[in-house]
Amino acid sequence: MDSNCMSCTCLHDLCLSKVPLFASLDHANLVTITTQMQHKSYRKGETIISEGSHPLGFTVIQHGSAKAYRITADGREQILYIFPTHDYFGARFLFTEDAVPYSVEALEETHVCILSKTQLMQLLAEHPPVALELIEAMAHRMRRLELVVQSMGGRNAEMRIASMLLEFMDTYGKQTDRGIEVTLPLSREGLANYVGMARETLSRKLSQLEEEGVIAFIDSRQMLVKDRGMLVDLSVLAAE
Amino acid sequence: MDSNCMSCTCLHDLCLSKVPLFASLDHANLVTITTQMQHKSYRKGETIISEGSHPLGFTVIQHGSAKAYRITADGREQILYIFPTHDYFGARFLFTEDAVPYSVEALEETHVCILSKTQLMQLLAEHPPVALELIEAMAHRMRRLELVVQSMGGRNAEMRIASMLLEFMDTYGKQTDRGIEVTLPLSREGLANYVGMARETLSRKLSQLEEEGVIAFIDSRQMLVKDRGMLVDLSVLAAE
DNA sequence: AGTTTACTGTGATTCAAATCACATGTATGA
DNA sequence: TCATACATGTGATTTGAATCACAGTAAACT
User: Fold this and answer.
1) Of the CATH numbers 2.60.40.10, 3.40.50.720, 1.10.10.10, 3.40.50.1110, which one belongs to the domain with range A155-234?
2) Which residues of A touch B145 (CB under 8 A)?
3) Do A196 and B101 touch (CB under 8 A)?
4) Which DSSP string do the residues of B135-162 spell out, in sequence order?
5) What is the pLDDT of residues A31-84, one digit of tens each?
6) Which one of A49, A196, B51, B123 counts the least CB within 10 Å of its CB?
7) What is the pLDDT of residues B151-171, one digit of tens each?
């Protein structure tokens, strides 16, 4: 299970300094906050928070990654967010309901740092610039959700997939000599649950995109984007 | 077209006092801000902001209502938000991009009050409680977007419709002697564009729900919810 | 009031994606 | 190293929703 790790590298590395949200804080403040935080580790597949439970608090992913998902009435797993290293979650539902609206599960060995609700509120009250940063961060997350709603409202599977690939390209893409290389954060099953379609359909459409020369796979998790323009045209970003 | 209306009732009514976001401000501050704001009127069907244009600023709906939508590549209109009276929009995209990501159109005769980006920023910096209120408001909007993503990810049309009806019930529902009466904010075509499906499918499913005794229509815009529990079971909120 | 225009319901048909079924491939762990 | 479970691709079939087509109805305009 999860365990407190006071001997972890959080303080030494000052993990929070890599989180844009806290960019406006000076070193002394960061140290203070880091010591206040609770630190936990999870193995791949372990649950960080369960839907319906009491919120842990504002949680920063110091190392590793996680997915936020919900099991729907028809038994499907709908993935809402992927949180990469240095991303965070929990701010949103500290401000709304008591119960956590979705589960979060570690996708790999993952270390998190948790700030309690009271501590976060105090931080926001004492450091107004952090509140503005949080607003900006939430604005970006809303922007993404709005795009997802648009792509999910679309009729064809191709649009959803193209939009997803563009999103992952922005988050995980690296420019290499062979083109933009993207490490997909999820299995095919996971990708399908992210865009809300059957695994088989996703698989077929990805093969199709590869045949058309839009993308190329190095292996099942490593992808090259050959024709970004075509992806944009297929995606929800395309103008009418 | 739109026109400035300095003679409108904004100052007298102090429209902003009805907006929860500004609950923490005292009367004097509200008056100051109201005078700073730009006031405009739109007739039904008129565009308040166009996708791709420069943001107007933080916009409060003093009277009337509006829809935010985007035309997708396949020519469909995807509705993202419905803004009822005393709701507001524009905070989100003031913090992200330069261009407005969707169009907003008045659904009826509508009066709006606009605060420019600089004015909003100044307000947030000078009145930290307003920033916290804004975070809370954004959290609620994110919560709704997350629910929409979940329902859009679902396979069947019924789930999307049930989720939409519950949402409208919360926003527009009034307890009457005959049950919970809901005035739908959109035509059938609009509802279909809101949940991302064909008008015909929506129409058929609504008739079906009426036959099953879950809802009842007084006229095409007035609806009674007879069995809220059944709607919840059909919706995205249902536990697995 | 009468005409035009937009809105709505319903059947018939088509079609894209889900589901079913299974073979192959790839990790994972005893 | 092998065995077991998990991941992936691909064909065949089914199905739910989109599309097409049209009639009836309500609303808006002159």
Assistant:
1) 1.10.10.10
2) 142, 145-146, 149
3) no
4) HHHHHHHHHHHHHHHHHHHSS-HHHHHH
5) 999 999 999 999 999 999 999 999 989 999 999 999 999 999 888 999 999 999
6) B51
7) 999 889 999 999 999 999 999
